[in-house]
Amino acid sequence: MELHAEYEALKNKEPQNDLFQRCFKNIMTLELAMIPQRVDVNSAGASSGMRRFVLFISLGMVLVGVICLFLPILVKKMDQRHSAKAGIAMIVAGIVGVIAFTQMK
Questions:
Q1: Distances in whole angstroms, Cα of residue 19 to Cα of each of 43, 46, 56
Q2: Which uninterrupted H or E stretch holds 75?
Q3: pTM for this one?
Q4: DSSP class of 39
């Protein structure tokens, strides 16, 4: 940065000096070359292993959610409200996971 400012000042001070002009252009070229390349992550697809993992975890959450909904019917001593809330939350999370799976490329 300091070198850039120094040669820019020299270039502006002596506009007829070709050496300062060339050095300033070279410094600018090096600065531009040092900028990292932009990586486009949207073009990268999910691996098949990742897609399967998301699908199976999502389907598992739906299954466990359904079990949580019907478990108080089988076991009379359980509190039905808490189990129903947990079951619904797991089903919703599982459905969101399945939707995410369908959007993966």
A1: 44, 51, 66
A2: none
A3: 0.51
A4: P
Taking each helix axis as running N to C, give the angle between helix 2-13 and helix 18-33, from 0 to 180 degrees, rounded to the nearest 10.
150
Q: 3 vs 25, 29, 54, 56, 79, CA distance in Å?
A: 12, 13, 51, 57, 72
Q: What is the length of the chain?
A: 105
Residue burial 63-100, b: 16+ Cβ < 10 Å; e: rest? ebbeebbebbeeeeeeeeeebbeebeebbebbeebbee
Place of tokens 């070229």: 29
pLDDT in tens, 84-104: 788 888 889 999 988 888 887
